[in-house]
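Entry 14. Structure prediction run on the chain below.
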Amino acid sequence: MPPNYRQQRGEPLKAHERKGAVLLILLIAFVAAGLGAWQLATGGGGPKGKCVSITLAGSTGGESIVKCGNQARSWCATEAEAASPVAPEIRQACRREGFLPG
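Output returned:
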């Protein structure tokens, strides 16, 4: 017989089956709450502040550059004055994220 034969026949679950289901739901809720608290305590594991992301052509394909927070602010300030071939793309990405005036 399948494990859920009582539900198929319309019979109610026994007390120990209900307790097991409640315990399983509580365990899942407890683990989810713990993971949420850990995420908040560690700052989500991600970078702090706004990020600037740009993808450039490289010798082996695309190269992604991501700078966040104070690192992005100083990178954008440096690239605002640069005359490199990729500086216009970087300046555009910095403007889009609000690190440079539009």
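The longest helix spans residues 15-41.
Filed with the rest of this week's runs.
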